[in-house]
Amino acid sequence: MNKRIPNWVLGILLIFAAIGLLAGLFAGLVRLGWAIKGGSPVSPLMHGPLMVNAFLGTLISLERAAALEKEWAYSAPILMVIGTVFLLADFVPTAEWLFVAGAFMMVVVLVYLYKFQPETYHLMMAAGGASLLVGNILYALGFAIFNLVAWWMGFLLLLIFAERLELNRIMRPPQKAQNFFAALAVLWLIGVSLTYLDRYIGWLIACIALILQASWLFKYDIARKTIRSVAWTKYSAICLLSGYVWLILAAIFGIRYGLPFAGFAYDAQLHMIFLGFVFSMIFAHAPVIIPSLTGKDIPYHRYFYLPLILLHAALALRIASDLFVLPWLRKSGAHTNVLAILLFLGGVAFQLARNAYKKQRKQAV
What we know:
Elements: H1 7-31, H2 47-68, H3 75-88, H4 92-116, H5 120-140, H6 149-167, H7 175-194, H8 199-220, H9 223-226, H10 231-257, H11 263-294, H12 305-323, H13 327-364
């Protein structure tokens, strides 16, 4: 049965994705030493699970379910939301298995999409969903975050790569080029798997795949052309290309330092990908994804360059502080990164509210 869920249910799921994001950002600040009188209501250990599952897992599975328009497909974001509630209520083991169930249903949706339309990008999306499932199973089995985080990275990397391949059909990359791009995704997964035998060699292979994937995107992504455009189109292109730069920098860093277990180098490696690349993609795709889910367009404003510039400048500061072991500077960079994300979300909310108010006034007249 093809059907879109009621708007109020969609709204609740989006609200919980936002709660997951805010709670994840809060947990990250606590992890960096932000003291809370009486203790923090959110454990700093929840930072990663909240950002990956509660926020991005919910949002991405919701977007795919909305694209499929089948009621059963919404079970994935619903399970992610229930897992978020249990995690915030400190029922961690239950939350972990709910995230496993949510990831499993996401894989089912993505495999169904591939069977319905057997395109390379749908296959890559399914591989990304499988990467989240593996990471979540390891998380539920008690593996340390540093021993599974590469699978969570793979979830976001492969899903985003697949979406760029899907959206860049207008550029008509040759089938051989598309096959090569898909092969690089397989190489990434092989590299991540090999980290359990040799952490440096496995990560070296994964980083080589990342450099080649970013180079592929620089060559075939329509952003190279749309950067000459205006408004949201130009803004999104700048976000995309800057994200690809961070991806190459992260891969070069990984070749030099490997995938550390903890410490400053670990912080730098993870946030070049999760902040520099992933949030650049979020900023780039928000003007498309939010209207597709809510039916409401986000009016463009030059204001949105402020959070984008802050995001990259603060991340550069954070990476420099990691390299030179300057904890106080790392905190400043991290706090500014959170500010950049909040400013972006606030800008989106303000523009949506302002647009709704203008429409209401026009109707009243």
